[in-house]
Amino acid sequence: MRVPVGSGALVMKKAIEKHRNDPLKQIAFFCENVQMNSQIGRLREVSQKTRTDFGNVLCKSVVELNKHNHPVQNISDLSVRNCLRLIEIWAEEGQCQGYIQTKVSHFRKFLRMIGKPDAIPKSDKFHELMEKKGVPKEMLTRSNVLTESKTWTSKGIDPIELIQEVQKYNSTVGVQMKMMLYFGLRVRESVRLQPYGSDVGDNSLFVYRGTKGGNGRTVPFSTDPEFRKLQISALEEAKAIARKHPKRVLADPGLTIEQCLNLVYNTGKRFGVGKNALGVTCHGLRHEFAGRHHEEVSGLRPPVEGRMSLRNLKNHKEDLKQCHGSA
């Protein structure tokens, strides 16, 4: 372990003295001044991006805790109780396992640096603790193989019907969900979408804002005339909303990206979208699109639904090469 226990305690103390009762400024001071070595490879300082990501996770965590009535006045107050509550919140919002793991890793590293090395248990003890909190292991463990369909229809929910109800309550969020369903967008991609710039005019949508790793991808319009009409209609609705935004983004003016994301999750939660309610997440709309696109390309439903024969399973990987983007 290259992060010595308590290696950041002195910097934390100075941060609190300099910015008492302002945890966000304390985090900025801490990240700027603490020595932070890479945990893998040769012994070296981490990159500025890693420091920034580390600080962003801590700052967002403090904001979320305050929002959920767990106020933090100084960063020395951060504890395992805070982290466990955050994991519950993240899981309820349907955040992916990998993202939760990364944030927990940052939190664990911070607590070790300020002298709390065993605050967050690891492996089985950690999962047992979260199980007691109502968060199952599979929601916290990354897997490369799906064992259960994450689509809304597999849970008996009509996505179009529910989205229509959402749209009556909040038109922007409703259209954002439509773009997730009809073009396979992630939540972050939908709130950062610039419909005019993405409509490249060659029967496809170019998604380039908010993507993983900043890599753009092209989503073709469906060859099914009926579904294609739904795609075109959703895109036109997205353009109508974007016209009201100074940056032509599919979002409400005046909101930050994080506020837009929270609006989607909170609005969805109002209508039962969550692991602890209907058992589905906004990301499940992307799985709906992926399943439909897979069937359009291969003529078969995805194997996770258990309808594929062993003979057809051999051709599955080749079919997937034609499906754009990873779920």
Structural overview:
The chain has 327 residues and is mainly alpha-helical. It has two domains: 9-139; 153-320, hpI Integrase, Chain A (Orthogonal Bundle), CATH 1.10.443. 53% of the residues lie in helices and 2% in strands. The protein is built from 15 helices and two strands. It has a two-stranded antiparallel ribbon. Helix 1 (9-18) packs across helix 2 (23-33) and helix 7 packs antiparallel against helix 8. The model is unreliable at 322-327 (pLDDT under 50).
Percent range of helical residues: 40-55%
Total beta strand runs: 2
> What percent strand?
under 5%
Structural class: mainly alpha
Count of helical regions: 15
The string of secondary-structure elements, in order, is HHHHHHHHHHEEHHHHH
> What is the approximate shape?
globular
Task: Give the topology.
Layout: H1 9-18, H2 23-33, H3 48-67, H4 80-92, H5 97-113, H6 123-132, H7 159-169, H8 171-183, H9 187-192, H10 195-198, E1 204-207, E2 217-220, H11 225-242, H12 257-270, H13 283-298, H14 310-313, H15 316-320
Antiparallel strand pairs: 1-2
Helix pairs in contact: 1-2, 2-3, 4-5, 7-8, 8-11, 8-13
